[in-house]
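JOB MANIFEST
job_type = single_chain_structure
chain_count = 1
residues = 277
[input]
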Amino acid sequence: MGLNDHYVASLKGTILKSMQDVHIVDVSHAVRPFDISEAAYLLSSCYKDFPNDTVHIIGVDSEPIVNFGGTDGSFPSILVYNKQYFISNDNGFFGSFLKEESPESFWRIDSVLSNPNLFQFPTKNLLLTAGLLLLKGDKIETIASPFEGFKKAFTPMAIMETNLIKGYILHIDNYGNAMTNIHKSFFERFGVDTSFIIYFKKKDYYIDEISSSYNEVPQGEKVALFNENGYLEIAINRGANRSTGGAQQLFGLHVHDMIRIEFTPQGSRQTLDSFFT
């Protein structure tokens, strides 16, 4: 929703008018419009830091679709997972967020069709309304009905091929660091001593080692590391878009750009030099 308009203030005002003993935490208001993959990445990166019974409101692509265009629609729903509540339009977010995990339960909010006027600001009038009822102690079965299954939207997934990993940039943070969907576990399948080269954007841009921290490389140098959540990150040590330039600015990286990692297993006839021919 950004921070230039009234939307976020309206949501917070609604919360504070309804109940005062509540903590409001902003995860992000800068998700690319309608980009549920980025929203899922951001929330999956931090939800474990919240206490039980936290209510998360995901206002990305939040307007319901009722049998529009021959589809079965998308409806405001509640996911119960890790003893927390996640309230979103069922537009594919839940599938992107959970990946291969299973929810504790899944519910469809009952009041969706009772008042079409609620569609005018669905994040506030549908999602947040349900969240406030949960915070006040209402049982979930009085707000929603159990539902089997949720949408699986197309989300770019990292894939493994012979001596190769292909992934994508999911998010670029405030420093210009590029966060990918390539998890550390993918690397581990090739063995800890297997040589590799990470290619991004152009053939001239590559990294052939993983660092454990930014400062393992000189200031201003490119660096690859696994972040707190185990995902590959490409950055510039002490670089940032609004100062000396971050990885996004210096390398021209964008969300959804492909990242390619080529491995040379021990005993292979290939050498690292062959990657440049």
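[summary]
The domain at 7-146 is CATH 3.40.50.10790 (Rossmann fold).
The chain has two domains: 7-146, 159-276.
exit_status = 0
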